[in-house]
C-alpha cells in the first residue's frame, strides 16, 4: 500500500494531518523499526502530542516514502544512511534534501532532481537534463545527480562497543527477518549497561515475531515500568494480550493508550475488535466512528466503514437494534466527543 500523495492537480493535503509510526510503516511498506531508526538519525522529524506519543506530518510521510523506496530498491539500511550522508554533503546550507528534492532510486543509483546546480559529494557536476527552449515554468529546468549505492564497509578492524551501532545493526537484521540474531544484539545492549526503555520494547518485538508471547509480554511490561508514557509499549502489550486471548487485559492496555492520546488511530481499531470479542458491540462501533473522525483517510478507515456498513445492514433487518447512522463521519456521538 502506498500513501496517496497529491499531484499538482490535486487539492493540497490537510496541513493538520498527522501519522503515527505504525501508520507510516503501513503506508510506505517500511517496518516500524526502520521508522524509529530514521527518526533517531534525524531523517524524520517527529512531533510529540499531549500524551507523549510521536506523530509525523504529511511532509515527514513523504520523506518516509522516499527512504522506504530506497530499501525496496535493494538498499540495506546502512547503504541508505550513506546515501543520505552524501545528499546532505551535496546540499546547500539550510537545505533538507529528503524533503525538498525529488529523489528516486533507479537500478543501482539514486536519481536526484533539484532546481539549479546540483553536485555530488565530491563537488563534481554530473548529468544535466536538456533544458527546453521555452519552458512553461522556470522551475521545470532541473539538473540530475546519480548517486551510486555505497558498498558495505569490508574493514576487519575490531570496533569498540557502541550501543547505537548495535541498535542500528539489530534493526537491519529485523529488516532481513533474522529475529534471533537481532534479539541477541538487543540483549547485548541491555547487558552493557547502556540500555534504555526502548531497548526492552525492541527486544519484545523480536520475541513477539518469534512467537514467544510470554517473554514479549514481560519485555513490554518492563518498558512501561521504566517509561510509563510509552504508547508503543502499551499498544504492543495490547497486541500480545489479544494473541493470548486475554481480552479484558487487552482492553485495559488499549484503553490506557486512548487515555493518554484519545486520537491515536493505532489503538482505536484494535480496541474496537477487542470490544467485539467482549460483546461490547456498541462501544466498538463508537470507536470506529471516532477513527473516521480523526483519520478518515488512514489505512484503517476502509475497514471501519465496512464494519459500520455491516452493522447498519443488520440493524435494517432487525428494527429492535435501533436506528442506523447513515453517515458515520457525522455521527451525533462524534459531535459531542
Automatic annotation (TrEMBL):
GO terms for molecular function: DNA binding. One of its GO terms (biological process) is regulation of DNA-templated transcription. SUPFAM superfamilies: Putative DNA-binding domain, TPR-like. Residues 328-337 have a biased composition (Polar residues). Keywords: TPR repeat. TPR repeats lie at residues 265-298. Gene3D superfamilies: 1.10.1660.10, Tetratricopeptide repeat domain. Residues 19-86 form the HTH merR-type domain. Residues 305-337 are annotated as: Disordered. Pfam families: MerR_1, TPR_16, TPR_19. This is Tetratricopeptide repeat protein.
